[in-house]
Amino acid sequence: MSPIATVDTATLPHPDNGIKKTTDKELTPMDRAVRGNKQGALSLEDINDFDGDVHEQRKVLKEHLAGAFQFWGKKGYGEGSAGPITAMDPVQPDHYWINPFGVHFSDITASKLVLVGPNGYVAEGGAQLPINEAGFLIHSAVHRARPDAVAVAHCHSPYGKAWSVFGMPIDTLTQDACLFFENLVVYNNFGGIVLAAEEGNRIARALGPTAKAGILQNHGLMTVGTTIFECLYYFEFLERQCQVQLLVEAAVSDGLQKTFVRDEDARNTARTTQYWENPHRAMLTEYIRLVAEDPSFLS
Fold first, then answer.
1. 252-287 pLDDT, tens per residue?
2. What are the residues whose beta carbons fall under 8 Å from the beta carbon of 286, sequence distance 6 or more?
3. Spatial CA neighbour of 138 closest among 196, 211, 225
4. Residue 58: CB partners within 8 Å, gap ≥ 6?
5. Of 6, 27, 61, 130, whose CB neighbour count within 10 A is largest?
6. Which residues form the Class II aldolase/adducin N-terminal domain (predicted)?
7. DSSP sequence for 147-167
């Protein structure tokens, strides 16, 4: 199989939807996860780099972001005005895109997305609609603290919200849970609905410099990613693992014993599952299905 070149993310502050490939021939974890024909003539399609066209990159980023909300809508995560996903803008890197206040996830389209400026207010260039104050305070703090976080996701999904009341991380009980091995934090200081900048800053500090996922005690889940799809995949898998954890805890109460994945095995598995391209491509399949079902959200 022809190898997919590795990515130097240090030089790509905003790689979402447009990863520029290097010429390094070393196999990546994505290469090891895919097998082609014996002649090595099959490989995954490269991720578009747009040839430096940031306006085209912005267009596709908005389509992907709208698709992420459509996915959440199908999952039933909508709860009124709660839950933003934000994505840094490739044209103006100190701006980011967010969903408007009070619009159901299933009704979000690319044209309804709001552009937020560095001053924290709605900017020209996107929909002129109000945004969620708490969402702004949390997400703006995370984007400032984590320049690698092209996308940040948070909502009050049912299983994540249920597990968050324990203020504990999930256990490494399954192969899927290895995605979060040494890659998950818990924020134990619930301070009520976030209407002050300092609470957002505390959440950002708790997330730390590298973790892709967090459990906010008595609140819900938060994930970040170098692409929208990586971020969304982390969120969905953390939600599922919270569900698994709740099921396991119920079974343990009936006398069954847990079997944990050994740290060495979890770490080895994480080297593949945590590589950005694996979750990105996995969620891309969901996006393709959404577009096939109803492409109207792209406009």
1. 987 889 999 999 999 999 999 999 999 999 999 999
2. 71
3. 196
4. 89, 90, 91
5. 61
6. 63-246
7. TT-SEEEEE--HHHHHHHTT-
Do the Cβ atoms of 225 and 151 come closer than 8 Å?
yes
Pick the CATH number of 53-298 from 3.30.470.10, 1.10.760.10, 3.10.290.10, 3.40.225.10: 3.40.225.10
Calpha distance 183→1 (Å, rounded): 30
pLDDT tens digits, one per residue of 80-134:
777 899 999 999 999 999 999 999 999 999 999 999 998 889 999 999 999 998 8
The two structure tokens encoding residue 89:
């803008």
- Residue 151: how many other CB atoms lie within 10 Å: 29
The pTM assigned to this predicted structure is 0.88
Q: Quick one: tokens of 194?
A: 């976030």
Reduce the DSSP state of residue 50 to 3 states and report it.
Answer: helix
Residue 25 · residue 2 · CB < 8 Å: no
Q: How far apart are CA 59 and CA 54, in angstroms?
A: 9
